[in-house]
Amino acid sequence: MHTRFLLERFQAYGSKEAMIWKGEPYSYAQLLESIEASRSFLDRYRVQAGSVVVLEGDFTPGTLALMFALIDRECLIVPLTSGMDSRKEEIYEIAQAQLVLTMDAEDQVSVASFPTLTSHELLVSLQQCEHPGLILFSSGSTGKSKATVHDFTVMLKKFSTDRVRAGKRIMGFLFFDHIGGINTVLNTLSSGGCIVALEDRSPDRVCAAIARHKVQVLPASPTFLNLLLLSEAYNRHDLSSLELINYGTEAMNEHTLTRIREILPQAGLLQSYGMSEIGIIRSSSRSPDSLWIKFKGEDYETRVVDGLLEVKSEFTMLGYLNAESRFTEDGWYRTGDAVECDGEYFRIRGRQSEMINIGGEKIYPIEIENVLLQMDEVIEASVVGEKNLITGTMITATFQLRVQLPAAEFRARMRAFCRDKLPAWGIPQKCVIVEELAPGNRLKKKRS
């Protein structure tokens, strides 16, 4: 049984709270009962080992119980949340889905089946070695969703030792179909902690849940933390229980980090690094207000080649279902993240795919945004490179402002402000002013 060590811990934790869902506590003993009921459910529907099963839901008792039952059934699990509704059919096809289990608002499950044969070599290899699998899809914001395949047996090994933050109340903020969400589930429950589930990830609802349930750890994206600052929800709720904010999923800008440190001085700040392809790497920040991190433990090896980070670990994915391999011949995964190095510390500059090249001069969007966000007039800014007939590329910045200003006036102010802070070629040539810069469906900054 692949989850034996987890089930033994759940039994030992007994009446301790495993989850808060819709404001109500749900114990480890109740979770074990739900896992047993889920096994019976799978028996009733004759779900076979090796089946590709889409599990549509979020952080609910029923969804998590089904996930553990499916792992022990050696199924290949595709977690899916409502944010991916527009891509469901594409996902079913790529994953070669055979069964879809959908959890409704009351945590009741419905079933749909497809007469699909599993043919992809990665899925077949998991079936042949009788291992459960995990298939994660990217948001597809810049094109087709990429499907990463993991061996769930290998992934579980990371959580078989006692966790550092044992017994903590952790916010279920990162999505269930995101590597960070899966990491939250396994990290929290393997250590006897409690997941506080959210029905709404708006700043006020998140802060209300922190205050009501005394949440100690908040995993979050930098984009959400900026939304928190803009909303000032931290002034309307008691966040004194927060001990740690673990931020990741995208590059953090210096302005947001400094402001979060100011308004929540009691909370530690820890930058995590991870991707669907490699999992979450344990790390530590040089200091709470630093964007420099170092990786901890012997689970991962890292190296930098031509300024880009590469990672090697048994916890990296087996491969993609629908994209070319990013592994080198000697087994290193090419992350595509540009980094600076200072001894054992790294600073993430940004994705290589987002790099802006102006006549041979190169800069990353976050480096420009760090300057733009220092302007008093600016609430939020997003920078991209756009095609230009003369230079090949020009820098376009989209702004959300505190007060409305004529575009020409603001552009003049912006260029004057940046003159001694950015090279002339790195100052945005095109300015777009919008009422609101809305985040993407996974609460990350949209750059497309």
From TrEMBL:
Example GO BP: fatty acid metabolic process
Domain AMP-dependent synthetase/ligase residues, every copy: 9-283
Top-level taxon of the source organism: Bacteria
UniProt keyword terms in alphabetical order: Ligase
Residue ranges occupied by any AMP-binding enzyme C-terminal domain in the UniProt entry: 367-437
PROSITE patterns: AMP_BINDING
Coiled coil, from the record: none
Keyword Ligase belongs to the record: yes
Family classification: Belongs to the ATP-dependent AMP-binding enzyme family.
Protein name: Acyl-CoA synthetase (AMP-forming)/AMP-acid ligase II
Organism: Cohnella phaseoli
Organism classification: Bacteria, Bacillati, Bacillota, Bacilli, Bacillales
